[in-house]
Amino acid sequence: MLEDARAGWVVTRQKLGELLPDPTNRVGCKTLILDGTYSSAVIARFAETPVVDAERAIPLTPLSLSYVIYTSGSTGKPKAVMIGHVNALNLARHQAQQVLQGRSQRVALFASIGFDASLSELLMSFLTGSCLIVAPEHVKGSGADTATFAATSRVTTITLPPVLLAEFLERNSGCLKTLVTAGEAPEPNSVAMASSRYRYLNGYGPTETTVSATEYLISAGWTAGRLPIGSPSMNTQVYVFDAYLIPVPFSVSGELLIGGVQVSRGY
To answer: How confident is the model at residue 104, as a pLDDT?
Structure first.
């Protein structure tokens, strides 16, 4: 991934830095050890003021690259997805409005930083001035432990993988108000229970559409069976076409095509 991204720097901690390949095998990357004595001294010399265009190698525009994130790819080789600032900003604006309802909240940073869902949690929090609470690694494999974390940390908004939902619902989650699930279809029993307790949204979208493309707000006590993926995000369009790119009638199967601001570079 370092070679493919042509990264100039690797930013890490001392313990993880020891696991990196020898510097001569890092395709030109330099390493910044955040908790190293030398690095701390170097960082302390940096100005705290925002970087201006005169200090950049090239000007920053809405179409500039914001980040590169890797998926497993269909061949097993990591595949780069390039997300621009305009893509990320649209995601942040939509999630701040749809998930946080434009208000400052206590948001759990639950997803791994290497998983694109973490960008949704980060960006909507930054845009609304929300308090971002980092979930400890040891709670992430257990729905019960996650519920305890949410309760003790007074989390009001959390995004979870559906696999944890049933166990999560068995425990008291404190002052949690909004729950989001994404990645796969949750179990109907869990959906009914969760929708009666929280403002509950189900999200859908591949990494190439900047984390999320659609969301569905589930009505309380949902019992209608399989969940729909919902309506498109802000400035996003979704269509269901047949093999000849002709829109299919209502209730007929087809292929989902996604367009709009959140579609990443190259798509």
So the answer is: 94
